[in-house]
Amino acid sequence: LNEFCFSAKALLDNLKLQEGNVVLAKLYFDAKDSLGDIGFHCSINSEKDSILYFGGNDIGQFYQSDKSLTFAATQIYIGSEFKYWLKQKSKINFFVWNRAGKTFKIRNFEIKVIDHWPERWDWWK
To answer: What is the signed CA dihedral for 56, 58, 59, 63, rounded to 10 degrees?
Structure first.
């Protein structure tokens, strides 16, 4: 019932990311009602907790009344700002923004780091 009922945070430094990676988060859930006006978002926050990046999708954009939606996803591309974020000792945060106050059950949560072109790192070795 809380507006921010779920969040998962990690220091960017601990994720072994490289510029050009994508961080993808999936949230699996059960819901009886339409989940309009509920978002699954990610943010990058500095050590001082100021927001350096914010993005994500509203789950309701993908919900259809004749089908049950079982997961939502959000992602962030790790681009040229990455070194700046590391200097700020930043954290990545994935969270549900339950603006509508709906009730649903989270079954599972998963984070993946995707390196879509791993061979490029060998060029500089």
So the answer is: -130
- Across residues 44-53, what is the average pLDDT? 89
pLDDT per residue over 51-78, tens digit each? 999 988 887 666 555 556 677 888 888 8
pTM: 0.80
Q: Give the whole-angstrom CA distance, residue 106 versus residue 85.
A: 30
How far is residue 4's CA from residue 6's CA, in Å, rounded to a whole number? 6
**CA gap 50, 72 in Å, rounded:** 26
Dist. CA 23–CA 109, nearest whole Å: 13
Across-strand partners of 25? 74, 111
How far is it, in rounded angstroms, from Cα 75 to Cα 94? Answer: 9
- Give the containing element (helix H, strand E) for 72: strand 71-77
Nearest CA to 15 among 74, 82, 71, 73? Answer: 82
Residue 75 neighbours by CB under 8 Å, 6+ apart: 22, 23, 24, 25, 42
